[in-house]
Design goal:
The chain has 106 residues and is an alpha+beta fold. The protein has three helices and four strands.
Length: 106
């Protein structure tokens, strides 16, 4: 399990396959895996969404794949930072809260 308080965004790699991109009328959905570099563990998966019109224009440009990779990496970095700064609750604390809800104080 990854200790989000002890990691840096540089500790992760983002991985996606171009063949797995899903196009809809309005958006492009890119399934991405965020992988911890040291352990090889998949930290989490994320769908990166890009407007379809932007994606179509981007595909017409030279070097469009490199630009797409930069966009995906930036979105992954934002997701990693969000996880690093979120207040994660321990499982034992969550279970205690669930128990308290089942047995309210009277």
């Amino acid at each position: 399990m990854i200790d989000w308080k002890q990691v840096r965004p540089e500790d992760f790699n983002c991985s996606f396959e171009g063949e797995e991109i899903v196009e809809t009328a309005t958006h492009i959905q890119i399934p991405v895996k965020i992988i911890h570099r040291d352990s090889g563990e998949t930290a989490f998966s994320k769908m990166v969404s890009i407007r379809a019109d932007f994606y179509r224009e981007l595909k017409e440009q030279t070097g469009h794949f490199q630009a797409l990779v930069k966009i995906v990496n930036r979105r992954c970095r934002e997701a990693i930072l969000q996880r690093m700064h979120s207040k994660q609750m321990d499982v034992s604390d969550k279970l205690e809260m669930i128990y308290m809800e089942e047995n309210p104080i009277q």
